[in-house]
Design goal:
The complex is a heterodimer of chains A (313) and B (362). With 313 residues, chain A is mainly alpha-helical. Chain A contains 13 helices and no strands. Chain A has a single domain, classed as ABC transporter involved in vitamin B12 uptake, BtuC. Helices cover 69% and strands 3% of the residues of chain B. The chains are: A mainly alpha (313), B mainly alpha (362). Chains A and B meet through helix 3, helix 4, helix 10, helix 12 and helix 13 of A and strand 1, helix 6, helix 7, helix 12 and helix 14 of B.
């Protein structure tokens, strides 16, 4: 009943906070992973996330139903993603530029929609205390008494993993991403597959954004995603396009985020601004490690990533 | 059914017509947006595009603003365009802009209050060097470690914003005024002030620099072998390799030029129109410049026109915000829509639309 328990008391909330911090980027990253697996690079994650954040918030305040709000967020961001799909898949626009456009537009649009919602409290999302497990001494507080989105995000990663690895549709999606000309020759609808993947990626990013505005913060402020979408993009590279590594990466990153915030609260003698830039610096560092030397994550990238597909005739 | 047919070569006519078409479409869509917000769309569009230049009431204030706002946009967009042409995506110009401003202001604050003709030129050098150095981070990571320059340059914007906040609250804070963030106002320090060259026109040294950059970029891109290599690398990377273009050198060159120009833009802004280093110094010119570069079709002359037009939307937007209580974010939406339409109508440049009878499309 001494040192061991003391440290466990401090550690349990830390792990709990870590899981909450990791959830938004995990959601956005798993969506983007599916998009990139289909051969499309959507750089608009940040814009879709913030759109999801504001849509979810508006839905939550209007309906006072946190579950409907999540659906609304997913739908709103998916609609924005479909604009990207229209540009890149139908109108053959450059994917990098279209993704940037999505982010610039999303940031403006969300500020416009959310201007009447600053400083409002959203309805609380209830915690889901898993019956027996949440009573466990240490794990109960740390892992088993979160809101439903934490578990949903993990389930989603599992579902994506199963989908890509074991289903026929997943195989087609990967084929389209690896070599769109071959997939087209086999009679698969390259464009349709990609549009669906883009919409799915948008919905996931929207959920991630809404998790920020409704559960993690919970409040609406302009530009509140603060680069989370870009970090999610980096996470996909870190994960070498493998679903389970997204979980690992997101929790690692969540850990850094929480540690940094804890250091701020404790009052280490480093100015807050320098602590606050650490997540971005560490993301860059991870990108460098993953893309250089033997790790070479770029080798695992889908073959047709960021290449336009045009079927003549 | 409509069917697309790839043109053997991009259409010359559409290359020039698509930006105009995109602006027209944005005006229509923007008008609908303003109507949805409960404002008269015609009054709003007129206020954004016409009144800042021609209204007797606002023109005197707004016209000089046009050059002040356009100069940084053009400076940054010129650099970005060179990179975009080569397929080097520097989207972190906002960060390079901030670091350039901090370096320029740092020199000024270090010399304060000594007078001297050499201070302003030193600030220009420092600003350019700061932006250059900040852009070298993604450049070197890309060439040495093959790290994606898009993500690195963008993530560095957030780092630069934190450095800006740290400087305005810490090292560069004005020691004479307690309790407020922000540095000394450089407008009250003649040796460091980027003053108007001709009073009342908005013409400051940044405008001159933008002008020089445009000419320099035109010569580089259209009259110099380097420009040929830049364009070749962007359009046909394989052919470029066979032609002996060193990709490493090109990445360093493109990011270096764009970082330097963005740093200069930041330095001219902090020493002139903004006047001081402060937490709200960065207003997104680095991102808007991406739109300017595309709207100008990555061509130096086009970028001048695009920069002036975007500057107009900023000024007109502020006017509409003040007069019609149009939300400030609606101008951001407006600019975002412009980029959407631009990318969409670009289809007409590269493809021909054919009407075909029922035929299976992919």
């Amino acid at each position: 009943m001494t040192g061991a328990e003391l440290s466990s008391i401090a550690l349990a909330p830390l792990i709990a906070a870590l899981m909450i911090a990791a959830t938004p980027i995990m959601l956005a990253a798993i969506g983007e992973l599916v998009v990139e697996k289909s051969g499309v690079l959507n750089l608009g994650v940040e814009g879709m996330m913030i759109t999801g954040a504001v849509c979810g918030f508006v839905f939550a305040v209007q309906t006072s139903n946190p579950y409907l709000a999540m659906l609304g967020a997913a739908a709103g961001a998916a609609v924005l993603a479909l604009v990207f799909a229209l540009l890149t898949q139908v109108l053959m626009a450059n994917q990098v530029a279209s993704g940037l456009a999505l982010t610039l537009f999303g940031l403006g649009l969300s500020a416009l929609i959310g201007q009447g919602y600053v400083g409002i409290q959203p309805p609380r999302t209830p915690k889901l205390d898993i019956p027996v497990l949440s009573d466990l001494p240490f794990l109960g507080r740390a892992v088993f008494s979160h809101d439903y989105m934490v578990y949903l995000s993990l389930a989603l990663v599992g579902a994506v993993w199963y989908f890509l690895k074991y289903t026929r549709a997943g195989l087609i999606l990967r084929a389209v991403g690896e070599n769109h000309d071959a997939a087209h020759a086999l009679g698969y609808r390259v464009r349709r597959v990609r549009i669906l993947a883009i919409a799915f990626g948008g919905a996931c990013a929207g959920l991630g954004g809404a998790y920020l505005s409704l559960i993690r913060v919970p409040q609406w402020t302009e530009g509140m995603t603060a680069g989370a979408g870009w970090i999610a993009l980096a996470l996909v590279v870190f994960a070498s396009w493998r679903p389970w590594r997204v979980v690992l990466g997101a929790y690692l990153f969540g850990g850094i985020l929480v540690l940094q915030l804890t250091l701020q609260v404790v009052g280490v003698r480093i100015p807050v601004e320098y602590l606050a830039m650490s997540p971005y610096l560490i993301t860059i560092l991870v990108l460098v490690i993953m893309s250089s030397g033997r790790a070479r994550a770029s080798l695992a990238a889908p073959g047709s990533l960021n290449r336009p597909f045009f079927a003549s005739g | 059914m409509l069917r697309l047919e790839k043109r053997p070569q991009p259409s010359k006519a559409w290359t020039w017509a698509t930006p105009l078409l995109a602006v027209a479409l944005t005006m229509v869509a923007g008008g609908i947006l303003f109507a949805l917000l409960g404002k008269d769309p015609f009054v709003a569009i007129r206020m954004i595009f016409f009144d800042p230049l021609f209204s007797e009431q606002f023109g005197a204030y707004s016209r000089p603003q046009l050059l002040i706002k356009a100069a940084p946009l053009i400076l940054i967009a010129i650099g970005l365009a060179i990179g975009f042409r080569a397929g080097v995506w520097n989207i972190g110009a906002e960060g390079q802009y901030i670091i350039g401003a901090l370096c320029g202001a740092g020199v000024a604050l270090a010399f304060f209050p000594t007078p001297g003709w050499y201070i302003f030129p030193l600030m220009i050098l420092a600003g350019a060097a700061g932006g250059f150095a900040w852009a070298m981070i993604p450049a070197i990571l890309r060439t040495k470690f093959n790290t994606n320059e898009i993500l690195v340059s963008l993530l560095l914007v957030y780092v630069a914003e934190r450095i800006l906040a740290a400087m305005s609250l810490g090292l560069m804070r004005n020691p004479d005024i307690a309790g407020f963030p922000g540095s000394r106002n450089l407008r009250h320090y003649p040796s460091a002030h980027n003053a108007e060259i001709i009073a009342g026109t908005g013409m400051h040294w940044g405008v001159v620099a933008a002008f020089i950059a445009v000419i320099f970029a035109y010569i580089l891109l259209h009259r110099h072998i380097l420009g040929f290599q830049v364009r070749l690398a962007g359009q046909a990377p394989r052919a470029a390799r066979f032609a002996g273009v060193a990709p490493t050198r090109l990445v360093i060159l493109c990011l270096g030029i764009s970082g330097m120009l963005a740093g200069l833009a930041g330095m001219f802004e902090v020493s002139g129109p903004a006047g001081q280093v402060n937490i709200d110094f960065a207003v997104g010119y680095g991102f808007t410049a991406i739109i300017v570069a595309f709207l100008g079709r990555l061509h130096p002359v086009g970028i001048v026109l695009a920069g002036l037009l975007m500057a107009l939307t900023y000024i007109g937007g502020e006017l509409a915000q003040f007069m019609l209580r149009l939300p400030s974010a609606s101008i951001q939406v407006f600019q975002g829509m412009l980029l959407f339409f631009l990318l969409a109508v670009d289809l007409l440049t590269n493809y021909r639309i054919r009407f075909a009878r029922k035929e299976a499309t992919a």
